[in-house]
């Protein structure tokens, strides 16, 4: 196709996203971060506390007590220390379920067992609820069982498509928990119910949830001092690791200089890093965490080129340059695109070199294709905008599954975190399997739910809600309700894949879910990525990176 070169001589009328400058001063704030919680200093104490918790596993014999211990470990953020103990305990509970009905009259116990087994990939049937059902709903005599209803409410979010009993349970528990909000006597239970109704456990960022739960657990009657101390120490030590990683990322981004050369784009260094923490929680995932933070920043800058600043001719040329992946192809680009392409080219190729040096595996074709797919999706949206075209919801979501950038993040994160990279797993991800396509669709809807009002105000193309309104003639309120129902449906579809054997390591499945959790948190109450001045990013920075938990 013949294209005119982008004209560098005539003045170009460009759009503006009206983005506020970054509120986080990289060098002043980030580089000054420090902590006394160094692993070298506290390793001995951590090891002793881990031994104490292992003894707790040995001392606890009742299945419900075992499940509650596992639940506490997960919510406190220290379950990764005890993977072996957790796996063997859940395996035994799953194998014994047909011969041992210890939980049959306890709604809390039944729901907790269902949730933890489903979470860990055990195909436990929703039929465990049958003894609590009557005429297609939960028995009315359980209306006042708030603890049981809370456990059942949380377990619903680990159910799958087709789990009709769980759908009925969700309707019951949502209603009863809301109606009991003001008359729950137990203060800790009241806090947990309000927290769950705001957002269920399975939709929350694990590390942020751990900080919240450590405070709640410290005030609980069944608090174990050794477990609480381990949770606090681990959080603070890992926070120190995050600080060093953020410093490294900040130095890289400042030395790159794109923030000065592309001043029209969103400079969201801290938000990008927190997103990377959400997906790479464990401290040892340093390389993949830092590389993902860099990638999210590149995606943000390139999104703003296509969405706001670039002309249609320019973005088509930029897409062409990514497809060619050739330094010589940048001659036709305007200067602001040249420096962006060169920075991206070097970033990707350095990763390719590292992986090839360590594993003799060339991942360049895979990374190039993910960037090209993203660029083409951005370009399609640019064409819609410049032509005034209004896509149907089906058209919008088909393209939006690519433009949401979930696949590109998952592919790179897998490449950077796995050694060795498994060719069959990488091929599986590149072919957009159902678990990934569902995640992309869900991410698109979550994103639109938080950003559409801001983006429509500057004249962007219609988002999912508006496309649905245009297709059906429904009201905006009805369209938002439809999208919320679709989000729940997609989360449940995602849960189905937890129970299937796929060509993916379980760690990668966790990455997909954790990326969706970070997305949900970011856009739950509006655009928590672009709009820094709502205070959300400062709260996150303080909670996850800056302020340790008092001992």
UniProtKB/TrEMBL annotation:
Keywords: Lyase, Magnesium, Manganese, Metal-binding. The keyword Magnesium applies. The keyword Nucleus does not apply. Pfam families: Terpene_synth, Terpene_synth_C. CDD domains: Terpene_cyclase_plant_C1 (cd00684). GO terms for biological process: diterpenoid biosynthetic process. Its cofactor is Mn(2+); Mg(2+). This is Uncharacterized protein. SUPFAM superfamilies: Terpenoid cyclases/Protein prenyltransferases (SSF48239), Terpenoid synthases (SSF48576). It comes from the Eukaryota. Residues 254-492 form the Terpene synthase metal-binding domain. Residues 31-197 form the Terpene synthase N-terminal domain. InterPro entries: Isoprenoid_synthase_dom_sf, Terpene_cyclase-like_1_C, Terpene_cyclase_plant_C1, Terpene_synth_N, Terpene_synth_N_sf, Terpene_synthase-like, Terpene_synthase_metal-bd, Terpenoid_cyclase/PrenylTrfase. GO terms for molecular function: magnesium ion binding; terpene synthase activity.
